Fold this sequence. Notes:
alpha+beta; 8-stranded mixed beta sheet; 7-stranded antiparallel beta sheet; disordered N terminus
Amino acid sequence: xxLDLFQKEDQHNNGPVTVLGKTFANDEERRAYFREExxxxxxxxxxxxxxxxxxxxxxINLSDPPFYTACPNPWINDFIAEWEEEKKQLEKEGKRVPDxxxxxxxxxxxxxGKNNPFYTLHTYHTKVPHPAIMRYLLHYTQPGDxxxxxxxxxxxxxxxASQCENPDADLKNKLNQEYFSVHKQYPIWxxxxxxxxxxxxxxxxxxxxxxxxxxxxxxxxxxxxxxxKLNDKYSWMYETKHTNGATGRxxxxxxxxxxxxxxxxxxxxxxxxxxxxxxxxxxxxxxxPKCQSLLSKNSITKxxxxxxxxxxxxxxxxxxxxxxxVNYTFNRKRLFKNIxxxxxxxxxxxxxxxxxxWVPHYKLPDGYNLSQPIKSNGITHIxxxxxxxxxxxISELWSQLNLQEKxxxxxxxxxxxxxxxxxxxxPRTPHGEVNGPLSGTLYVSSEYVEQNxxxxxxxxxPNFSWDNSGVITSTNPAQSNQIKDNxxxxxxxxxxFGANIMYSELNYIWESWLxxxxxxxxxxxxxxxxxxxxxxxxxxxxxxxxxYYRILKPGKWMTxxxxxxxxxxxxxxxxxxxxxxxxxxxxxxxxxxxxGIKSMTxxxxxxxxxxxxxxxxxxxxxxKFQQSQHSAMGVWNFVxxxxxxxxxxxxxxxxxxxVVERSAKILFDRLIAFYVQRSLPVPIDAGKFQExxxxxxxxxxxxxxxxxxxxxxxxxKAEVPEFIQMSLFVGSxxxxxxxxxxLLEKQPKTEQDLxxxxxxxxxxxxxxxxxxxxxxQILEENFLKDDTGKWYVPDIHNAxxxxxxxxxxxxxxxxxxxxxxxxxxxxxxxxxxxxLRVGFKQCYQDKDFKTIVTIGxxxxxxxxxxxxxxxxFYDIASAKI
Length: 881
């Protein structure tokens, strides 16, 4: 299949065009030139991992080079070089600051709905609203900076970068006020240059249109002209008879699955027997209308029929469905009626027609999502997702559309136009309602909706124009960017969330129409059909983040928006970031219920979207650290550098709130991760580390600051004096120790005082397989008791001694684990995670990587995957042996 996507598109773009130093008479000439250049480069580009699957001509015709290519974009570095030169002119004009530096992560509350026009223009599995991204761009970048997103999806990062130049007036005012409340000045508005890429051709196709010059008035006129001609030819397909015999116009038809009674083999239309339209629900049980057997969906037999498919010229077996009722318009009123004989005759007539235009008839490959319609419904090929009526119309219209018009059509191709479109009964609705496809699946329900094709297309034509041109779009995996080292000023990215969404499978319908498919080998997801476990997902994410680290300039920032309820997946992401070289500076949770961001203290208890802020250490720090990495000064150089990248003061609900990253616990975890990622021995234990923190830095409210920072903290806290202590979900022994410390720092307590609190907050919350000592043992190992029997927090010197003794005991426990794990098929069903942490650290220091891997393979998988420290050591050790 060859797609002519640009026919008639350039009739309104006839002026001279200059791109990458070359001037063309118009866009058509520019496109033709760069398409030929792309053709020459394809042999070399095909060597890049993740090159999409498709014919050369389909890839070339889908591309709009050099701005968008349906394969790796070979002109990205040329654009970046040009943008770097443009920065000089922007500085001369006073639109840029020469030595722009961001020392703190963006940590303010964010509340942003999904009802802005760009967000709703086109469906996709996941998106971040562009106004939310703009907040980060205004904080981390200035006009002319180069922004990158390697998991771009529909290109919202590119939209945000462009909209920083000419935002909506209301949005600009809102963001101005937010920025001023924090910085006491307004942000620097102006376009940021963006490079966006994604593995999926479906995603980059949508992105290329959102990040282009889109003149809706011209697109609308062109599409409506084509629809008018189609309507003249096919309007009879959507006619039905009103009760008086007059003609009405079909809005949609509901089809219901046909099943068989297992007792008498009587065929039953499910809707007729299970739809309770009075109460707005589907009955779970019903009686066979012939033999009166009590049936349920689990006991019935599916009804299959075998028919000849003239598209693939073969016999297919599929689940039977029957039309049950129609929603139609007569005299401007929407009405319902049961299907009658005339409607059935119409469907028979349509099914007998031959499809004249090209339709995609690719066979569905096996997959986690793709196997479902094959097994459940007999949908084996792409065209089976459509009724014959809608397939005839979309195929004929598709053959006439240019690229930007196809953007409109694709918004319905994999959802509302297909049999995935569900009909659902609901209370207080006369019949029910069209409910759209079930997100993240290819599920065909027992009742699907066939909607009016003409209405659907018209409803998806944008109602506004936009100009986001200049964004560069590429189709390639995030771990295979062709961008030069140290080229990017800022990264905002929204990566795949483990096993949440199978992008390549869900995109298969879209990409069948486009003729270019995702190569899912480098796809960073968990997928049993692709043999990708959580560990495989983590390894793929490490490769992606390593490439991000390579292309990001030293001292610059990356923001990762992440959504997954699995602690294992969250730890995989955090481990991948650290192993790539990034240093995490802030982890916040997007509170969708309340619409804000709040600090999280127990980051493995993932209940909401996370916003992770991390940075690539500066070149100056790298030089300084290399000179001191084998001494204690290396530790404190890192801590000082890291503190300089953390938020100093946060306000939540008109109160000062704790910055968890400034706690001793998290600072030590970051230190370990930093050293381990660089294959260096950790030169200090937790006790000595806390002692050194007290000596070198200033502690306030359980947080550590430099002298300059604490002055700012105290000044800002004085303005907002109420203080919200760090909340803590206790899920591990380390958390339990930290929880006890919070209590005892306020006031010494007896065991009797602590016990009821312990039972409520700690007992029962531990992860499966993690052995938590009794409260008394934890108290004895970490705290001191006075003459009255009250436990209190020891001073620095005593705390260090306690820590040393505790680590000796934990190492003895770890030796027992080593012995048990060395036995053939030895399994450690329950372990003390703190002993593993100390033991893994010691093995790492001794370069005994084999023991780390051996024990890691013997403990419960959830403990390994849900503990960031264990996972960090295990991952490094695995790479060493």
